Structure formats: C-alpha cells, structure tokens
From TrEMBL, chain A:
Recorded family membership: Belongs to the adaptor complexes medium subunit family.
CDD domains reported in the protein's UniProt record: AP-3_Mu3_Cterm, AP3_Mu_N
Top-rank taxon: Eukaryota
Record-linked Gene3D superfamilies: 3.30.450.60, Mu homology domain, subdomain B (2.60.40.1170)
Keywords: Membrane, Protein transport, Transport
Name of one Pfam family that matches: Adap_comp_sub
Name of this protein: MHD domain-containing protein
Species of provenance: Hevea brasiliensis (Para rubber tree)
Subcellular location: Endomembrane system
Main subcellular localisation: membrane
Domain MHD: 178-414
Automatic annotation (TrEMBL), chain B:
Superkingdom, taxonomy of origin: Eukaryota
Family: Belongs to the adaptor complexes large subunit family.
Protein name in UniProt: Clathrin/coatomer adaptor adaptin-like N-terminal domain-containing protein
InterPro entries linked to this entry: AP_beta, ARM-like, ARM-type_fold, Clathrin/coatomer_adapt-like_N
C-alpha cells in the first residue's frame, strides 16, 4: 500500500507532502528522485516505476507536475499508477487545469481531496461525483463570498447519498428543465508507413464520449449497427456487462455530465486519408529534402488542422526550409513543424530545402520520422455507426445529439 | 460586474489573474507566517481558527515542523464546524505519533463524535482515531471499529474496514482474533463498497485465513463486478489464492504443463542457486516441476510472506507440497471465479484488467488463455502511463507461450514517441514471438529501426536481428546478407570515426553476425573471409576484436582460411603496438589458438616476440619447462617478466623487444589472454602441471605479499544488462597466491617477488551465455597448486529456470 504522496513542481520543489501510513517517508527521497531525474534526463521521467535505495517510487507527470508515490511493500504497480492518474484527473478537474500556482493557491483543497481519496494507503473515495459533493470545488461565488464575509466552507456537512447507492457514480436527485444527451464518437487513427512507403499498420483507437443532462436516474441503452468490427473494448464502470456479452448492447445509468462511456479499437484498416511523400537525397555534405502532402482517400468531409512534425536527426546542423503553403517553424530543439491546415484545391502542399550535415559526413545515414496531425469532423473513419439510443423512461423534452470526429493519433511516416 | 476592468485586454488579463487568486488560499501558502498563528488558534471565531490551521497546513506542505502548536490545535478538535474539524484531523494525523501524550487529549472528543447522528462525523472520527496509532488507545479503537462495522451507513462501515490495517500495524497480539473476526463480518457485508475495503483489510491483516473467504466464496465472486475498482484488484488476488489453496492448480493450465512430474524435496532457493562442480548436473529437469510447486506455494502463502522468507531449507509442506490438481471444467469454484473475472477484462482500470488476466493465465486451460491477449494489448494503447508495466507482464507471458502473441506482432512495432525502455522491451518481445510467417515483416521493421536517429536503439535492433536468426535458422542467410550490407555501409560513416553511437551499431552488427555464423560455421566460411578482408578498413577496436576472434575461432575452417592465417597474423603482428587493449587481447588469443594447431609456424616466428607476443606451445608446456634450467635463465626471465608487466603500454613493448630476443619461446611465459572457451581448461592445465604462468593484464599490480598461502582465487563477475544484452563484458580479477615448495618458489625468490598479485581484465565474448536476463555469475577457483582446482560457481539470476540452465551449461563446458 502507498505510504506517502509528494507533489513536485517542474523545478523539483516539493509543493506538498501527504503521509498516508504510520511508516513516514522523509522528503529527502524527493531529493534523490530529482537528482536522478537531472542526471538521467528525459528517459527517467518516462519510467513509471522506480526502485530507489529505500522505497519503490511510482511517478506520473502531468503538465509539468510530478506526482510521486512511495511504498515499501509488495503491491500491484498498476494500482498505484492508476490511482495517481485518478488524483491528477480529479485535481485538474477541480482546479480547472494543473500547474504549480494552481496547486499552491488551492493547497487546502488538494489536502482535503487527498485525505478523502486515500485512507491508510488504500483508495477510499475516487468517484468524482461523490467528491464534488463532499468537497466543493473552488468557484467564483465561493471565492467572492470568502472575500466578502471572510468565511466560507468548502467542506460539506452531510454525506453524499451516492456513497450508499448502487450507482455511486451518479448523484441521486438531479433535475433539469431541458433533458439532453449527446453522444460523440472521437477516434484517433494510428498508422505507420515504413521507409518503403508501405502501410505497415493502421488502426483506430476510439472513444464514445457521452454528455448527459437528464432528470432523475435514467436508464439508457445504446446500440451500434456494426459492433462486430470492434476489436476490443473497455467500459466505464456504469456499463452492465451482461447485455454487452449477449447482444453487444450498451446498457447503463450515466453519470451526470461529460464522461467516457467506452473506448474501443478497430484494427487492420487498409486506407489512410493523408499521404506524405518524403524524399531525402544527400551527397557531398549536403542533403536535399522534399516533402509532399496530399489527400489519399477522400473521407468525404473536410480535413483540416493538418500538421507535420519531425525531429531533425543529430548529424544535421541547420536547415533551410521553405514551403509553398502553410507555415514552417524550426524550434530550438531541432523540431521542425509545418502547419498546413487545409489542403488547397489548386496545388499540392510541398516543403523543400537543404539541410547542412555535420562536417566529415559524406551523407546522411539516419532519417527523420514524420508525425502527421489532422482532424476530420463529422466522420468516424473506423466506420462504426450508432444505431440508436433509447431511454427506459423517456422524460418530456428530451434532446439527443450525435457527432463524430477523427483525428490523427500516432500517425507516423518514416523516411 | 466590474465596469472599470475590461477597458483593455491588458487590464482584463490582470483582472482575471486577480480574480483568479482572490478568495483562494494563495497568500496563506506564500507567507504562512506573516501573522502570529498562536492567538488565531485560540480565537473564538471559526474563520480565524480555519485560517490559522490553513497556515499550519501550508507549513507542513513546505516541510516545516510545526508540532509545537500541537496542544493548541488539539483543543479545537471539539469544534462544531466541520471544516475546522477536518483541518484539525489533517494536522493531528501528521503529528500524533510525535506527541502521543497530547494526542490522548483528543480521545474524548472522538468518542463523542462516534455517537454523532451525522455519518460523516462518525466516519471522520473513526478514521482519525485509528490513524493516531497509539498503543494506549488501541482497545478503545477496537471497540469503536467493532461498533462501526455494524453501522447503518455504508461509508462508515467502509472506514471501519480501512481502520483494521491501522490497528493491525500496532501488532496487538491479544486482539488479533477480534480483528480477524471483524474482517470476516465486513467481508460478508451486503454492500459491494464495503466488501472491497474489507478485501484490502483481509490482505494486510490475515492474508492466509482462508476460512474467512471460504465462508462466502461464491457470493464474493458474484459481487466482484459491482465492487469498486480498487477493491476488485485486491479481491481478485484473494479469490485466486483461495482457489489454488483449496483446489490446487488446474489441469491443462500453463502452470500444470510446467509441473511435469512430482518433485522431490530439495534445498534450493529459487532466487539464488548454488551449485558446485562435483554435483550431478541433472538438476534442471527437476527444476520446472519445482517451479510450479513454488508458484503455487507462493500463491497459497501470499507473496509478501513468501518472498520475505530468505531461505527455506527442508521445510515440509505437508498439506500443500504434493501440489494438488483439479480440473477447471468440473470444479465449480474455479468455474465461477473464471466466469466472474471474465467481464473485468473490459474494465477501464488497467490494474483490474491485469489482475483479471492473471487469474485466467493461471487457472484457464492452455487453449483458452488467448482470451487475455486482446485486453492486454488494448491496455498498451488506451492507458499510456501503464504501458511499461503492461509490457513487462506481456514479456513474461510471451516467454512462456510465444504463440499467444505471435499473431499480434504489429502491436509491438515501435513508434518514435516510445521511451527507450519501452522500445527495448518491444524489441525483446518481437524477438520472442517471431515466427516463420511473421519474420519477414518483423525483419523489414528492424531494418527501418536501424536507420533511427537514436543510435543505441538502432544497435539494439541489430542485436534483435541476431537473436531472431538464432531462433529461426532458416532466415539466417537473409539476415546475414542484411547485416553484411550494414557493415559496408557503416564503414563509410565510421571511417570518419566521429560518432560514438555508430561504433556501437557496428560492434553490434558484428556480434550478431558472429552469433549467426556460430550456428553453422561451415556454411558461412565466405562471410568470415569477407570480414577478415575488411579488417583494414574497420577502425573501431571492439569491432576489430570480434573479427580477430572469429579469425582465431575458425582458423581451420574450410580451405581458404587456413591459408590466410599466416598473412593475417603477420598483419596483426605489424599493427599490434597501435591497437587498443581489447584488440590486443584478441590478437593474443587468436595467435594462441592458431599456435595450438600450427606450432611450427609459430616457433619459426621469432619475430612475434619482438612484437611482444611471447608464445608458449601449450601442448607440452610442462615438458619444456622441466627441460629449461631455471637458474640459468633466471636473469633473462626477470627482465622479461618486468617488461611483461607492462605489456599494455606499447612503448615498453618496443623497449623490451630487443632484450626479449634472448628469451626462448619455450621458456614458458604464457599469456592467458581473453580467452573465451580456452581459458578455463587452460588454467586447469597450467596449474595442474605446475607450469609457471603470467596473466596478461592492463595493469599488472604486484602489491599484496602473502607468501605461503595456498589459495587461488579467481573471481569472474559477469553481468548481462537487459538493454545491452550483447555486450558481454567480463572482468576477471584473479589473485594467484603461491605456496609451494617447488622450483617455482625459488624462481619467484630470485625476482624478489614473494607473491604475485595479478589482475587480469578480460573481455569475455561468451557464446553460451547469450540471453537477455540480468544475472551475476561468480566463479571461484581455489586450491593448492599441486592439486586439482576446486571450482565452484554461483549464479544469481532473477529467472531461476534460466539461471539453472546457464549453470548447467557452464558446468558441462568446464568439465
């Protein structure tokens, strides 16, 4: 079980410590941690489980804030990591963002939340809805009130009813004049195009996001026309397993507001919306680069926010790049980004230029990898379609809305 | 609201920052001590008390010790305001252990709160009271917990469950049965929320009290999907342990297939295998079955206890030892557990998915295990923070059953945003799961990786190609061609020699080629020739060393190589003084190997002496030594010995060369240099025959003078890193201490060296040890010079099966 949680700022300052058990952890462990982080660089930041001389450390980094948890006993590592993620989610939800100032300004709330979320190293209340009722988030009204009266409590006097209900994610008595439910399919396309220009892997990672504002305790069912294409799924705790097992129907009592109902994956897709043709020729100490971007398979909707990003390989000293469309930027850490936005009708966007190679090198032997970004509104490229959304008891004035969006996930073109 | 704001964008943003910070506790965190805290604590207004407590909390957050306010804070515990209460509790919990006497003052107020009508107040009081952790009040807390365990509020019962481990921590022997009883009550609670917390309490209070679980096993299984996620993780583990303890492993499961036959009692500890040469080496057969019963014992006893027990010799597990087996299809308990954990593979919490996957991995018949594959792979994409842990687990699964993940090789293709550790893990998994149908796509990927800007990753990719080739010999030719093309390509770049990473890649390419050739040397004769020919253009010392090693190893392979040997050796002798240390070692090694076969060539070669390679005809060393009279040659030996001390520095080499002409080759200076396979037999040979030997070294230090001690210690420390699986560097530190009233002693006396302390640093390109497990091998050789050496080997390895196999192979190879 976890023994201590530290919150570190991006300069390594310990902003907050919360001891969880009788086995206290000295904050000198943070010094050790930070020294390691400095000496080992970025790769250390990406290690989620670290063995220090005295403790096992779990870390996640969000918006520059490091959440560090320590333990000395055997425990499932993913439990610690998932819990830290949950803490980070709840905090950024409460504070409407996450940074050093926000945490310092609201340290009392952070303490109160941590105290409620974990007890003796084991998670206690992690359901955001219940937490919101127990500890109210800082908002303008309470802030103003505290200025005017000098007194406001954000700690609730009563225990939220949901703690004892069988749907702990839902506040019990909610009333709306207008009942609405929106279902969004948000998909990310992952693709790898290898150095020969062959599509090696193409798949969709998608989420069904629901935003519901419905009176009472509604019971919803959502079905797809083609659920068989789904390769694998994960559900929000509210989804009942049985109906999905037997009929691939999502039956659930939704939490109030925005939440992720399910995530899914569709593998082995064959077509990609955008192609990138990189050409690198190097000779006698210089390298010419030529990039072309265009639409490969028209998804039927406008593709926008097209970007292309790549890291110049270490042997390249400088680059002189121009494009016939969009803006090219070279950042200080040799990351080159080209924002195209929409592909114009009259010409194919291309980027060309010369790269100066380190002296002594005849030609380039390592090649950059291009990360592509795009967004297509109104289409779910996996082809998944929502069939219908039903309510068991239909309230008066119900509005249902459906949307779809596809954007690039890990979309890479090697050169 | 504020008409005067918002005139310009500038003031607007200013206003928003002000607005933003107004009413927050920002000023309290920045300057917690700008007012006197003590009077505020005694104020009669709750708001002032709150402010004071917040200031104290800010100081705690920043790491200051504010325990001196304890008495004043404790007084406020009786406050009616819940906010004050909460803040006081936070403070109390932080310092209670430091100030036990004052903490006792708060007890009355807790007792009162426990009877409050508001469940929130009761729960908080219980949490804090148990959290204070004082022995004195433990009986009171126990009573309170017992009462709260029957509270009408779910939340309070949950807090009661959480309080149990806190009590257990105090190690109250006399109350342990009461605590366990309460755990039992809570485990059979009708609310899933309480069950989850009770499961956590069960795990830390009484992990082996299976009767508690047995009572309500079925219900616990059924309630599992409704328990909150954190409780699920723990409960799954408990139910699994119970099922194994009750029914044993499932027939036809992976664990069962490992089990094989009934295992006899053994004294071996799974993590630290000690083994000596004299013993029979048929241990590893038994080992697999040993493993399975170990696994089941580990589950039955709970991992904490099992792992903490450092050594268990001859313990008899009367109930569990003869591991029981059950059939997964007919046993209801197993069936219901599998049924209820199956939907959890869809959980949104990656820890739950992994725990559920673990149950199926252990309990399901082999043919059904594949149902855990997709959920595990999905975790890789859907929760990026847990990627590393999930990959580590997949690696373990894949090693045991590669076919499981073989069709999903695409999921392990590497993307540029992966961290180095993840890339390395993925490569390893790809090697493990590669099959003949997928290898061509995987090889194509590997070739892409070689051009990756991250050169250490590129080197790993090359190493992976080598590993795949060993796994799938059919593809070896294709791989070799690809690798050879790389040597030519890398040559171009490394000629400019600037980049360290390139050298690493090149060395890795050659290591991989070497391992492929080793599988079937006769077929790859041309490759060796080609490499030897390119020797002149390859500048990286480690790469040269490998090629030279191959030259020596395959010196009588085919028809062309034996004819090349003399020319190559001449070339090497010529370049010797300008070579790096490791290359020198390999040159010596190669020359040594060659001379075993072609004694005449070498004896003819007086000139090799001039290069500092003093050669010994090992095939008959003792005879030669006995013939040479020690007294007559002692003076010349002394000079050459002192020069051989400095063999590494080329300058002294050349200076010694003129003198060493006097020394006859058969005067028995033996350079034990790198020495892969030849070293140990050689050492044995040398000592058995009392030959005088000098080990080659970077820095031979003649310090320690311990005459008359009959110990020869040879320590081989061998570390195989996970990431650098292929760079097998071995350092051999040897201490030779002589005590024999023999000719050699007088020999030594004339040198005024009573004892020789040698430290030989060697490169050990081991062939048998290629695997990616980190392990530490210690080889100790001790004994008297005149008797056979007593060699014992200790392998310290995370993976026991691998460790044992390794040990076996070393043993075979030494004997």
């Amino acid at each position: 079980m976890l023994q201590c949680i530290f919150l570190l700022s991006d300069s390594g300052e310990v902003m907050l410590e919360k001891q969880l058990t009788g086995h206290r952890v000295d904050r000198s462990i943070c010094d050790w941690f930070w020294n390691q982080a400095i000496s080992q660089g970025d790769s250390f930041k990406q290690q989620s489980v670290i063995a220090s001389p005295t403790h096992y450390l779990f870390q996640i980094v969000r918006e520059g804030i490091t959440f560090l948890a320590c333990t000395q006993v055997e425990m499932p590592p993913l439990m610690a990591i998932e819990f830290l993620c949950r803490v980070a989610d709840v905090l950024s939800d409460y504070l409407e963002g996450l940074n050093e100032d926000l945490i310092k300004d609201n340290f009392v709330i952070v303490y109160e939340l941590l105290d409620e979320m974990i007890d003796n190293g084991f998670p206690l209340t992690t359901e955001p809805n219940i937490l919101r009722e127990m500890i109210s988030p800082p908002n303008i009204v309470s802030k103003m009130l505290s200025v005017v009266t000098g007194n406001s409590s954000n700690v609730s006097d009563t225990l939220p009813g949901a703690t004892s209900s069988c749907v702990p994610w839902r506040t019990s008595d909610i009333k709306y004049a207008n009942n609405e439910v929106y279902v969004d399919l948000v998909e990310e396309m992952d693709a790898i195009i290898n150095r020969d220009g062959v599509l090696v892997k193409c798949e969709i990672y998608g989420e069904v996001q629901v935003n519901s504002h419905i009176t009472g305790v509604p019971d919803l069912t959502l079905s797809f026309t083609n659920p068989s294409i789904l390769d694998d799924v994960r559900f929000h705790p509210c989804v009942r397993f049985r109906p999905w097992e037997s009929h691939q129907i999502l039956s659930f009592v939704p939490p109030d507001g925005q939440f992720k109902l399910m995530s899914y994956r569709v593998k082995k897709l064959k077509s990609i919306p955008i192609y990138v043709k990189p050409q690198l020729t190097s000779d006698a100490g210089t390298c010419r680069i030529n990039l072309m971007v265009g639409i490969k398979n028209d998804p039927g909707k406008m593709i926008d926010s097209i970007t292309l990003q790549f890291q110049l390989p270490p042997p390249i000293l400088s680059a002189d790049l121009t494009s016939n469309h969009g803006v090219v930027n070279i950042l200080s850490n040799k990351i080159c980004s080209w924002s195209i936005d929409r592909i114009p009708k009259d010409r194919t966007p291309s980027l060309s230029g010369t790269l100066a190679v380190e002296t002594g090198l005849e030609r380039l032997h390592v090649f950059p990898i291009f990360q592509v970004g795009f967004r297509i509104q109104g289409v779910a490229l996996s082809g998944l379609q929502i069939d219908k959304l039903d309510l068991k008891v239909v309230p008066n004035r119900l509005y249902k809305g459906f949307r779809a969006l596809t954007r690039a996930g890990l979309y890479e073109v090697r050169s | 609201m504020f008409p005067h704001f918002g005139a310009t964008a500038d003031t607007l943003s200013k206003a928003s920052t002000i607005m933003f910070r107004i009413g927050t506790d920002a000023h309290l965190y920045d300057d917690p001590e700008d007012v006197n805290i003590a009077p505020l604590l005694d104020s009669k207004f709750d708001s002032e008390k709150c402010e004071a407590l917040k200031r104290l909390l800010a100081l705690i957050a920043q790491g200051f010790d504010v325990s001196n306010f304890f008495p004043q804070v404790v007084k406020n515990v009786a406050s009616q305001s819940l906010e004050v209460k909460k803040l006081v509790y936070l403070y109390l919990l932080h310092y209670a252990e430091k100030r036990p006497n004052e903490a006792l003052l708060s007890i009355n107020s807790f007792q009162k709160d426990l009877g409050d009508t508001n469940p929130l107040v009761r729960a908080w009081a219980l949490r804090t009271m148990a959290g204070i952790r004082l022995h004195v009040i433990a009986p009171l807390v126990l009573v309170a917990v017992g009462k709260c365990a029957r509270d009408p509020s779910v939340y309070v019962r949950k807090c009661a469950a959480n309080a149990l481990p806190k009590l257990h921590d105090l190690q109250l022997e006399e109350h342990s049965s009461t605590i366990e009883e309460i755990v039992g009550i809570l485990l059979s609670d009708h609310s899933p929320g309480v069950v989850g917390a009770a499961a956590a309490a069960f795990n830390s209070v009484c992990p082996n009290n299976y009767s508690l679980v047995g009572r309500s096993y079925k219900r616990l299984c059924e309630v599992l999907p409704d328990v909150e996620e954190w409780g699920q993780i723990v409960l799954i583990g408990i139910l699994l342990r119970y099922a194994i303890a009750r029914h044993g492993l499932v027939k036809k499961s992976i664990m069962f297939s490992l089990h094989g036959k009934e295992s006899p009692q053994s004294e071996k500890d799974g993590l630290d295998v000690e083994f000596s040469l004299e013993k029979d080496s048929s241990m590893d057969l038994k080992f697999n079955s040993e493993m399975a019963s170990m696994v089941s014992r580990c589950y039955i006893e709970g991992p904490d206890e099992y792992l903490s027990r450092s050594s268990y010799t001859n313990r008899i597990f009367s109930e569990f030892h003869n591991a029981k087996f059950t059939s997964g299809k007919s046993n209801d308990d197993v069936k219901i557990l599998l049924q209820c954990t199956l939907p959890l593979l869809w959980s949104n919490n990656s820890a739950v998915v992994l725990a559920a996957a673990g149950v199926h991995w252990i309990m399901v018949p082999c043919e059904d295990v594949k149902r855990i594959v997709k959920p595990l792979l999905f975790l890789l994409r859907s929760s990026s923070t847990s990627k590393y842990v999930v990959l580590c687990n997949i690696q373990v699964f894949a090693k045991a059953m590669p076919s499981l993940f073989a069709p999903h090789f695409e999921d392990f293709f590497i993307i540029s945003s992966d961290s180095y550790q993840i890339k390395a893990l993925k490569l390893e998994i790809l090697c493990t799961i590669a099959t003949e149908s997928s290898i061509s796509s995987i090889f194509k990927e590997f070739q892409d990786y070689i051009q990756d800007p991250d050169r250490s990753f590129a080197a790993d990719a090359v190493a992976a190609i080598g590993l795949c080739a060993q796994k799938l010999p059919k593809m070896a030719i294709t791989f070799l061609e690809g690798l050879l093309a790389l040597t030519r390509q890398e040559l171009l770049t490394t000629e400019f020699g600037s980049i360290e990473g390139e050298a690493g890649v090149l060395v890795q390419v050659l290591t991989s080629i070497k391992s492929i050739i080793k599988q079937d040397p006769p077929n790859h004769e041309k490759v060796v020739i080609q490499l030897v020919r390119s020797l002149d253009s390859i500048k990286v010392p480690a790469a040269r060393a490998i090629i030279i090693w191959m030259m020596g190893e395959y010196n009588n392979l085919g028809e062309i190589i034996p004819r090349m040997v003399t020319t190559v050796l001449q070339y090497l002798a010529w370049s010797f003084s300008s070579e790096a240390l490791e290359t020198k070692l390999q040159i010596l090694n190669t020359t040594f190997k060659v001379c075993q076969i072609a004694v005449l060539v070498l004896l003819k070669w007086g000139k090799i002496n001039c290069c500092g390679i003093k050669l010994l005809n090992v095939q008959s060393p003792s005879i030669e030594i006995s013939k040479s009279s020690s007294s007559s040659s002692s003076s010349s030996l002394s000079s050459s010995y002192s020069s051989s001390k400095l063999t590494s520095s080329s300058s002294s080499f050349s200076s010694s060369s003129s003198r060493s002409e006097e020394v006859r080759v058969d005067d028995a200076f033996l350079f034990c240099c790198d020495v892969d396979a030849t070293f140990f037999p050689l050492l044995n040979l040398v000592f058995r025959k009392k030959g005088f030997s000098v080990a080659y070294s970077e820095n031979i230090v003649a310090t320690f003078c311990f005459p008359f001690i009959s110990l020869i210690c040879l320590k081989v420390v061998y570390y195989l890193g996970v990431s650098k699986a292929q760079s097998k560097e071995i350092t051999i530190c040897s201490r030779f201490k002589f005590k024999t009233v023999s000719r050699q002693l007088t020999f030594i006396d004339t040198f005024n060296v009573q004892c020789i302390y040698l430290s030989a640093a060697m490169l050990y390109y081991s062939e048998i040890l290629s695997n990616a497990f980190p392990c530490l091998i210690t080889i100790t050789a001790e004994g008297k010079c005149i008797e056979p050496l007593n060699v014992s080997i200790k392998v310290n390895c995370e993976e026991t099966v691998f460790g044992l196999n390794l040990l076996n192979r070393i043993v075979n190879f030494l004997s």
